[in-house]
Amino acid sequence: MKVNNPDGKCKHSKFLTTCPVCNKKIFLHHILEFQGSLLDSGQYPVPLTMLHGLKPNRHALTLYLDKNFCVRGQTVSELVKVTRK
């Protein structure tokens, strides 16, 4: 997915938020790398969840983005169990 500003410049480096748990700065390209296709759904706000942090402090941050890629809300889950099939 390509995201453009009206001036034609790519917004992939757009700052979105800072994680309230680990203070990591989250940029649009972090989300597009794994979940860019969700932004094509046409239904907004789009919930996008990213798992980050190191054991034992792994957590999930869910951002709710509007069609202008502005964060309209966020939630954090500090209790994350990842299972593989």
Jot down its keywords.
1 helix; two-stranded antiparallel sheet; disordered N terminus; 3-stranded antiparallel β-sheet; globular
Summarize the structure.
The chain has 85 residues and is mostly beta strands. The protein has one domain.
Structure in words:
With 85 residues, this protein is mainly β. The chain has one domain. It is 9% helix and 33% strand. The protein has one helix spanning 28-35; strands spanning 15-18, 25-27, 46-52, 59-65, 71-77. The strands form 2 sheets. It has a 3-stranded antiparallel β-sheet with strand order 3-4-5, with helices on one face. It has a two-stranded antiparallel sheet with strand order 1-2. The model is unreliable at 1-10 (pLDDT under 50).
List the helices and strands and how they pair.
Layout: E1 15-18, E2 25-27, H1 28-35, E3 46-52, E4 59-65, E5 71-77
Antiparallel strand pairs: 1-2, 3-4, 4-5
